[in-house]
Every structure is written in structure tokens, then in C-alpha cells.
Amino acid sequence: MTAEIDFAGRQSVGKRAEQEDTYAFSEIPARPGAATGVLLVVADGMGGHSAGHRGSEMAVRNFVRAFHQGGETMHERFTRALDAANEAIAAAVEADPVHLDGMGTTLLAVAATPLGLEWVSVGDSPLYLWRRGRLRRLNADHSFRPVLHEKVASGEMTQEQAETSSLRTRLRAAVNGHEIALVDMPRTPLPLLEGDIVLAGSDGLQTLSDEAIGEAVARSADAEASSLAVHVVQAVLDAQQPKQDNTTAAIFKPPADWLFAPFAFAAPAPEPEIVVDDSANTTQRIVPRSLRSSSQAGDHPAPDP
């Protein structure tokens, strides 16, 4: 796999004063003789001023570091890494509550290996798969958008009320040093096929509808990952949203000769306890360990990212 050809990312600050999104790619090493993979992490910070950028950068850095500490299953790596990101933010806020109170971030981590696509996400940063001309979102949306959609479907509010609601961009879960009530983490990998395109980003992408994002990807689907990332971000900017949020678009295009290569970590470790919650808009629900356990991000809406 080659940077800028098989995987790449691009950002725009939009109409915001500063960039509060952070993203990173990292190689996933495997045992000798096994193919490697790619880890992609995207975080959209919140907290205002420098706290937003610091929160997202801190979460990404600590997540990647913890992810690589060991050779267990992907599930356990994700859980440990999410704990580490959450605890780092808790420690920072505790050390400087005057300047960092309210600091937090969304977090989306995606691991692409020959086994398939696996992810963990908290918040509303979207993960898309473009396959055979169709774009679909893979991860759960932990904003209030799905809640408002359900209210429209049940007749409790109109579509217009939902689209103008102040809750629309509020989060039901975030990585902010407290217990995390909503975590989307599928139990099994999603197999990747030749021609697939993985798109991960911040919610600035959602200035566009999913249909419009799909059209932007389709126009450059045959291009290198770097060009495709540029075209997706440009499509957002072309919409000329007067309050355009920071936007991150990170692309991964699995090479054809890599899809069916062998891949394995070291000896598997037991999976962490998982509670399946079919009633919530999340694939899996877990509560990771944190330094602060007195409140839950799901109980109190987090600030707008």
C-alpha cells in the first residue's frame, strides 16, 4: 500500500476560525509472513478556542499509541485504545479545568486489513463505503439526528421542525473523560471487495446529503486516493454553506492484490464484555473504563463539535 495512492486525507477549515479536526493513518503490522493493514483515526474536537484542537489531537495520538501496544484481537485493541484516549482527556481537564473544561471530541477509528473492515466510533463522524456505484453509511450516528428522524416518523414533529431543531447537531455521546454510553463497534469484520472505497470524515462532510457525497465519490472513483479526497472536500466547499464547519475526508482504496492475503495478529485474547442494545441507534454498546465515572455523555448533550 502506498500513501497518497491507496490512502490519503484532506481537510478544510471551512468558515471556522481554526481547524479542530485531527486525522492520522498508521500501518497495522502483523506477524511475519502476513499482510499488513491500515489504521485510520478521525476526531472532531469540541470545547472552544484551543481546547477543540487539543482534544482531537490528544485523542488521536493516544488512541494510535494504545492500539499498537499488544497483539490481541482488533476488538480488544479498539477497546483499550478508546479507554486510553478517554483517560488522556480526563487527565488533561483535571489538570487544567479553567482552560479545558468542556473539552472533548468525536472519535472514529477504522482498521482495514485483508480480514475486512472494522471500526469503533463515538459521536457523529461518519464512515462510508462506496461499492459498485452506491454509497452507504456504515457506523451509527450518535447525534440527535436519528432521534429527530424517529419523531418525524411517529408524527411527533414535522420534517421542517426537525431540520431547524437546535438539537440536530448536538451529540448524545463523546469522548470527554466521562463514561461513554454509546460506542459503535461491530463484532465481525465487513469483507472488502475489489473496487471498494472507504471514506471516513468529520461531520463537516454532512453539509452534503449522502447522495451528493456519493456523486462526488463516483466522479473520481478511479482516481488516486489523494485526488479523490481533494474532490470530496471541494464538493463540500462548492456548496458555499455560510457557516461551513471544519471538514475532513480520509480515503482508503484497498489494493486488489492485498484483499485476499493472509492476516493474523498474535495469540487472540478474550473479547471484552459486550452488551448488545438493539433499541438504540448503535451496533454495540459498551462502557469503557475512565478516570471519571460520575456522569455519562449520553445523559447530557455534549457541546456542538
Helix-strand layout with pairing:
Blueprint lengths: L6 E6 L8 E8 L8 E10 L2 H19 L6 H22 L1 H4 L3 E2 L1 E7 L2 E7 L4 E5 L2 E4 L7 H10 L4 H6 L32 E5 L8 H10 L5 H14 L8 E6 L53
Antiparallel strand pairs: 1-10, 2-3, 3-4, 3-5, 5-6, 7-8, 7-9, 9-10
Question: How would you characterize this protein structure?
Answer:
- With 305 residues, the chain is an alpha+beta fold.
- The protein has one domain (7-258): Phosphatase 2c, domain 1, CATH 3.60.40.10.
- It is built from seven helices and ten strands.
- The two termini are 32 Å apart.
- The model is unreliable at 268-305 (pLDDT under 50).
Short note summarizing the structure:
The strands form two sheets. A five-stranded antiparallel β-sheet has the order 1-10-9-7-8, with helices on one face. Strands 2, 3, 4, 5 and 6 form a five-stranded antiparallel β-sheet that branches.
* Oligomeric state: single chain
Strand content: 15-25%
User: How many strand units?
Assistant: 10
Strand order of the largest sheet: 1-10-9-7-8
Q: What is the CATH C-level name?
A: Alpha Beta
Order of helices and strands: EEEHHHEEEEEHHEHHE
The named CATH superfamily: PPM-type phosphatase domain
Q: How many structural units, i.e. domains? A: 1
Structural class: alpha+beta
Radius of gyration over C-alpha positions, nearest whole angstrom: 18 Å
Largest sheet: 5 strands, antiparallel
CATH fold annotation: Phosphatase 2c, domain 1
Level of helix content? Answer: 25-40%
If classified by CATH, what would the architecture be?
A: 4-Layer Sandwich
Principal-axes geometry comes out as globular
Number of helices: 7
Identify low-pLDDT runs: 268-305
